[in-house]
Amino acid sequence: MSAHWEVPVFTGQSAAHPGMYDYRGFLPHTYSLHYRAPGSSELAGRVQQLLAQAGEGVRADDQRGYDHVHLSQYA
User: Fold this and answer.
1) Tens of pLDDT along 16-55?
2) pLDDT of residue 75
3) How crowded is residue 48: how many other Cβ atoms within 10 Å of its Cβ?
C-alpha cells in the first residue's frame, strides 16, 4: 500500500520484484543506488483477502513499483 497512490479502492502492490515508481528530481548519486527488496505475492493476497472480508473494496497491482521518498522531507 502507498499513501501516494490515488485510486478508488485499496490497491496492494503484488509484484515479486518491484522496481521504483515516480523516481525523479533527487540527488544525482541516488540514481545509482538499488533497493532490491523482494515483494510478496502471497502476503499481498492475504492482505487482499482480509480487507475483502472486512467489507473493503480491494485489488492487487503487479505493475506498480515502490514509491519514492524525497530526501528533502527529512532534511
Assistant:
1) 888 777 777 888 888 887 777 788 888 888 989 999 999 9
2) 45
3) 18
Contact yes or no for 65/18 (Cβ under 8 A): yes
Query: By residue range, what is the domain housing residue 45?
Result: 10-67
3 domain-assigned = no
The predicted pLDDT at position 66 comes to: 77
Task: Work out how many domains the chain is built from and give that number.
Answer: 1
Q: Is 21 exposed, middle or buried (0-12, 13-18, 19+ CB in 10 A)?
A: middle
